Amino acid sequence: MPYPERASRPALDRLAVLIPAWQPEPGLAALVASLAAEGFGAVLVVNDGSDEKFAALFEEVALLPRVCVLRHAVNLGKGRALKTGINHLLNELPEMDGLVTADADGQHTALDIARVARALIEAGDRVVLGSRSFAAGVPLRSRFGNGLTRHIFAFVTGARLGDTQTGLRGFPRRLLAELMVLDGEHYEYEMTVLVHVCRSGDRPLEVPIETIYIEENRSSHFNPVWDSMRIYFVLVRFYFSAIVAAGIDFAGFSAAYAVTGNVLASIAVGRLSSLVNFALNRKFVFHNRASVPGTLWRYYALVAAIAGLSYLLIWALHRYARWNVFAAKLAVDSLLSLVSFSVQRTFVFRRAEEV
Fold it and tell me: pTM for the whole thing?
């Protein structure tokens, strides 16, 4: 739906824009000037330890109205730069009601930044994401990376978003202090923030924005190997409790099978790991605050169902496919652990019953 004419649009003077910048392109000055012209109350630019040859560009930016340039002596990473800007807003700009973050690599236009800002005003307390479409014309690595991340993100959090890696985001002021203490100093920080928001029950509002990749995204400092690994680690660590429980389960199963030679009895012994899995998932993964009895019966109903299915599949693979029993155990439980995690997220530790 198109926005109304400028005269009836919400004023932006109580919102700030935060742009972390390292070795930025010359177009940064034009972008910041356009944002000042849009009427933002403040534009914060964090120079994240750029080389001296960029000093003139940052000096030019600092002369623009309502612009503040913050500086790191050395390059500390995008996550740290975002935290520096958030800290400055919380301490020095009490009149600002919210913050919009944007990138310095030319992917975000002033019009789209303003569009996200106005959506933030109209959405009240919701987080707003500037969501790109990944159609033809987008570099293959970006299409593949964003597609993979979207699916993993949806599995871990239960939230299906169109663009999980967008740097154009709007945050109400009430959230900023808690974002300051989240882990991450580099690109993974943005994923940590998004996981935190979605797992807190605040599904972001997505606003469509232009998809811009200049010269195959040449100006981006994103390292497709190391930064991708950091981002995926943020998602995988929420699955860590399942890995710990699986290790305990396999050790118990192996010991019991060595003594009894009975698959069913060995599975029952291995399922003692469920106590560890329940405790870790309830406190650290799903942050569930519902009563223990209310979640415990659902959890052990799931444990019983998974154990029964595990037994049938291991028995079938061992008897009919002649699989080694331990190989069958690893294969079956690796698959069932994904099912278990998904059911725990949507049924066992569902948020509807939290108090």
Answer: 0.76
Cα-based distances in Å from 246 to 240, 265, 298, 318, 331: 10, 17, 20, 20, 12
Distance CA 262, CA 270 (A): 12
Instruction: For 78-92, write each residue's pLDDT tens digit.
Output: 999 999 999 999 999
User: What is the tens place of the pLDDT at every residue in 14-27?
Assistant: 999 999 999 998 89
Q: How far apart are CA 170 and CA 204, in angstroms?
A: 9
Assigned token pair, 158:
């239960």
